[in-house]
Amino acid sequence: MLTFEALSETAEFARKWVPFCKKHNIEPRAPEFYFAQKIDYLKDKIQPSFVKERRAMKREYEEFKVRINALVAKAQKMPEEGWTMQDGTPWPGNNPRDHPGMIQVFLGHSGGLDTDGNELPRLIYVSREKRPGFQHHKKAGAMNALIRVSAVLTNGAYLLNVDCDHYFNNSKALKEAMCFMMDPAYGRKTCYVQFPQRFDGIDLHDRYANRNIVFFDINLKGLDGIQGPVYVGTGCCFNRQALYGYDPVLTEADLEPNIIVKSCCGSRKKGKSGNKKYIDKKRAAKRTESTIPIFNMEDIEEGVEGYDDERSLLMSQKSLEKRFGQSPVFIAATFMEQGGIPPSTNPATLLKEAIHVISCGYEDKTEWGKEIGWIYGSVTEDILTGFKMHARGWISIYCMPPRPAFKGSAPINLSDRLNQVLRWALGSIEILLSRHCPIWYGYKGRLKLLERLAYINTIVYPLTSIPLLAYCMLPAFCLLTGKFIIPEISNYASMWFILLFVSIFATGILELRWSGVSIEDWWRNEQFWVIGGTSAHLFAVFQGLLKVLAGIDTNFTVTSKASDEDGEFAELYVFKWTSLLIPPTTVLIINLVGIVAGVSYAINSGYQSWGPLFGKLFFAIWVIAHLYPFLKGLLGRQNRTPTIVIVWSILLASIFSLLWVRIDPFTSDATKAAANGQCGINC
After folding, report:
1. Whole-model pTM?
2. Helix 50-74 to helix 2-24 angle, to the nearest 10 degrees?
């Protein structure tokens, strides 16, 4: 009800805000962030009326905010009889888990004009049907419902996916995406254009690597040179045809085998080069592989006008319904490559059909969520959806305009950040243990080898938490036992060891130079990789195994701790208890105890023991340096850490330390026997 009423107010405000933005080239278009800018807003403005109009618009916006605040205050407590709409009828969505589908056109065919008489963009409220006993698939299910209802009502050829906590920072961003989507050479094989994520409200030093600079400015830029970046769930412009499971229109160059296949099997025969269609109709009709759709975009007639009956060249109406669902209007819309709806269509009929396609049972026994639309089966549905498109041969584009296209908010306190990383890592583990795992899925498709390796890296990274945790503990155990982590090796072997590290550092430096990422951003990324690896990634591995193999869905809840801090980054110091904090705290305590034990031993043993100690101390301090942002977050602004975290961490650290000393794996059995005074038969 709050969303519905707020959108109604937004539609009214847009009639004044949109013409003001267009007239004066306002950036960003989000009024909250435009009016909050601490810049000279008169720069580049030449119209004398601008100051007066801006002052009036700011007053309009403040009045709009007051009306929204009144709606929020009203929504804090639901009346016993439930919400009622302005006309007195009960609100259909009083039970959020059991309500019919709802659609309200706020700005559409009639009444969608601004104060200057120009047509406004469509604004339509959609709430899909919810009933007990149905699986609604959360965000992925909501996106698929929006694909269908938008195809029926407007059928735009392209879709933009932006999270609710993001806003347009660059109104020209969509034009940049269209340059790729409508390109004669690349347009018909481009499934989506991905923009990097940029964030507001993050502390200057980005303590918990919220900006993900290394991922967005190095990894995705690198993938852009292969088959395109992975889909990251927001800030993405889609080709609607790719979401329907159609094949891209590929050239002969695209159909050439990759360099490995070419070197083993040779190139294609020249006689086949004249055939531009890579699949003939007989093969397309017989195809049943899930990685490649059973129909081809090239075999569909272009420029379909109206909703004719002759739209199924390769499949019967029955098989179309089995794939897309039982909606003739929607099925017809899927064949209109350029989008749009016939001018003779009755709006009332379309609304009735739109309600039908967002019903609970519409997706039953169809391929929604399996082969078309957003793919189900993981909390990170974005990775799966992009992977399926790339497996069919589509390419994606990474677009980085100088002015960021979108900006959003990110969790800036430690607990929220770790839970966000946990969700991502859990999704990767779910994909790893599913049939869509890139290690074994889609080899009959057109996924390039390096792109496959990138997807494999995207889903297996949580597993690195296990060896990472072991390496973070080893320095402390070495200090406790007096043994060294690195064995003695020959000069020849040490040369290879040094060359390996030099090559790794050289690669990192070249990546930084190429992408323009600063050393500080790189170091923050390295630090949070260790923090996340010893906490969220580790929990995700075990939680994913329990969920997929045993069917046990374990949720790590977050309990907020009240904060009385004020200031711009007050939330940075808010502490929220979560079990994710225990493993890294344990690692910290073990290493600190190890340092104290090592230094104490060196003091008691004389100066000759200080030389070996420095090597051991280096690794322990290196671990603590990586966990330093975690330590700062744990202590907070006033050095307050919950007792439960300290108790559990000290308990675990003590158990591991005593166990390690008792096992003493660096000492051979014979040495142990001699130390204990035991003598064998050959004494």
Report:
1. 0.79
2. 170
